[in-house]
Amino acid sequence: MTTTSQEAFLRAFHAERPAVTADAFAGARAADGRSSYEILRDRVAGHGRVLDLGCGDGLLLELLARTEGCRPAGVDLSPEALALARRRPLPAGTTLSESRAQHLPFADDTFDACVSHMALMLMGEVEQVAAEVARVLRPGGMLACVIGGGAVGGEAYELFVGLLRSAIGTAPAEQRIPALGDRRTRSRAGLDSVLAPAGFAPVDWETVPIDLSGPVEQVWDALAGVYDVGPLDAATVESLRVDFLAGAKKLTAPNGIVPCGMNVHLVTTNLTTNLTANPAASPRTRPAANAAASPRTHSAANAAASPELQTAARPAAGTATA
Predict the structure, then answer these.
(1) CA 68 to CA 44: how far, in whole Å?
(2) Beta partners for residue 205, in sequence order
(3) 156 and 168 in contact (C-beta within 8 Å)?
(4) How far apart are CA 312 and CA 318, in angstroms?
């Protein structure tokens, strides 16, 4: 499966559901009451110029823009998601770009930090992504990512994953999604193997349970937004829904809430100065994209945020991502 075909799938999926990740995760909370978006925002507090890699519909960019001194920018593959982002209240001149992470349209040393919410794990040619992020970060700049980490266990997410695996297992090939992303981005050692050659320090890795609990239909809507459900035919999706609702009924608390937990990994690292001291080894050799590919600016009524909910089978099973 080529990067081109992977990206074609992602563009088509997000043309239909441009806000799917924010819809699922905006209201979900960690034990301290913050969303995964807010955790990521807080991790880069104090950094001025922040790039949101795979910014989606703009939720994370809006949160960043509310932070004093932060000047965010965003890139994403989906024009439909970026259209939603531009409706958000961002500062005038905020840059949004329909661009690939493998060829960022920014000059060297443009940003103090880069964030990515549920997106890095979806990207092909990940070594090139790492090199590009290193190029546009200043020496010492921070990279902070949220990556899907699978079901907490014993709750509705685990139930959903099992049912979805069964549905995919019997589905025809044309109703299965392509492998997405690079498996190495799902583990600490794997990420280090990708990021270290680009000049990043060993990553800090923290697993944070996120609570997606709610009424059963709300939980279903959040989980059914995963990539694997997209190509399934209507009859298969309805059968999956019926089986999920039946299983979730056994988990439902007296107050009507279905427990649903998903782990995410909060990954942070900093760009060292070692490679930049050696131009031959440095990723900072590719010029910024030409003017034809340069990002657009927009007024205060615009923005961008973060990409999509992992496929249920992915965080849990460690397969490619979404």
Answers:
(1) 12
(2) 267
(3) no
(4) 10
Residue 3's pLDDT band (cuts 50, 70, 90): confident
204: left (phi over 0), alpha (psi -120 to 50) or beta: beta
The whole-angstrom distance between residue 164's C-alpha and the CA centroid of its chain comes to 21
d(CA 194, CA 68): 32
pTM for this entry: 0.85
Q: Rg (Cα) of the chain, in Å, rounded?
A: 19
- For residue 208, give both structure tokens: 């944070």
pLDDT at residue 320 tops 80 = no
CA-based end-to-end distance of the chain: 15
| 3-class DSSP assignment, residue 226 | coil
> If residue 242 lies in a helix (H) or strand (E), which one and from where to where?
helix 234-249
Give the three-class secondary structure for 262: strand
The pLDDT tens digits of the residues spanning 20-40 come to 999 999 999 999 999 999 999
Cα–Cα dist 316/322, whole Å: 12
Virtual CA dihedral for 273, 274, 280, 285, nearest 10 degrees? -20
Give the integer Cα–Cα distance in Å for 117 and 123: 12
Q: Which two tokens stand for residue 11?
A: 């563009």
pLDDT for position 69: 92
Task: Scan for tokens 């965080």, then name that residue.
Answer: 315
pLDDT digits (tens, 9 = 90+) for 213-267: 999 999 999 999 999 999 999 999 999 999 999 999 999 999 999 999 999 999 9
Distances (CA, A) of 196 to 66, 254, 273, 308: 32, 50, 12, 26
Closest CA to 162 of 248, 221, 232: 248
pLDDT of residue 2: 75
pLDDT at 277 over 70: no
What are residue 116's phi and psi, to 5 degrees?
A: -155, 120
C-beta of residue 220 within 8 angstroms of C-beta of residue 157: no
